[in-house]
Predict the 3D structure of the following.
Amino acid sequence: MADAADDARLRHLRGKKRLAAAALLAAAAAWVAVHFAPPAAWTGFVRAAAEAAMIGGLADWFAVTALFRRPLGLPLPHTNLIVANQGPIAHGIARYIEREFLRSDALVAQVRSVDFAAHLARFLDDDENRARVFAELRRGLLGLLAGGAANREVLAAVADAVRREMRSADLRPGARAVLRSLDESGLPAEAVKRCAALLAEWIETHPELIRDKVRERSHWYVPKAFDERLAAAFARGLADFARNLGDETTPEFAEMREALRRGLRRLEADGLPRLFAALRKWSADNPDFLRLVATIVARLAAMLEKDLENEDSRVRAIFDLLARRLVAALATPRVRRRVNDGVAAFLIGNLGTWSDRIVGFVETTLMSQDARKFSDRIEVQVGADLQYIRLNGTVIGALIGAGLHALSLHLPAALALLGLSAP
């Protein structure tokens, strides 16, 4: 698009150059023709107008051409100005951008007036936008996970980071909060029900194990029929216990649930310090710690990669849920104000650093361009308007020439009326 626009401007520039040149040639043709015309009153006006038009057109042609190149290739001073002054021009453009745009009060006011939260909310509230964002996120994650196992240096860095955190960070408050929330969340009751269900399933699917164990422990003189009845009774009793254990109304359920809760409380009170101390020592001394980290990272990566390849990706569902919740949060005045204030403060606080980098980039880019091409690009952008200077110089020169000729003809009569005489 930029090349097409430049081509159009270049064609426009050439057309205006031809127009200005045609006006100058017309003045020259009139000047030549008047020399062959019989003397008359009008020939003096035409000659004066043509001479002044040629002078004005040539002078303005020289002035306009001197901006971009040397007129007729002559090494005249103060010509080819843009090429000769590429450095100062680049510096001036960069500093103008910095002064008028990057460090202006108007820019700060504009940043403070933008409702960033509303723009972000509207963007994330659109299904297509969320899909595009997740597609980019998915592409980046798959690219990161490509190749299977993570790089050994990356795994070593992760392992070192985990070791440092385990040595310096006190994880016990967080672990206590997790255990307390597990206790209050009803997990012990669910765990008891799950254990009861697994026990009942095992009894139902493995009846021969109980019978075989009874036979192994029985004596030779005990009748086989008695062993069979004993095994069956034991299996029934164990099945009854499993059913009672899974029933919230039974004492067995209440006792097991309370036992689990006591275990969580004992772990919270006494077990955590010893557990974390042992983990710190093991992670610091055991050479297998890196392999453990590698195994965990590899499994997480495989799970994430498999999930991202599914159409009903859980990561996608989590992303959509977080995006919708963020949209809802941004609709509240308090969150919107905090987001807008935070983004504005960040942008304004970094304007100095960014403006220096932008100014340096602009100046360096302009200076690195070929000086001839730099001049040609400027001429393409503004040269068409400059051709009107040539055209105006020709036309206005003709008018001035004709006017001066008229003045020279009527000046003696005007002076005589005033009682003066021409010198």
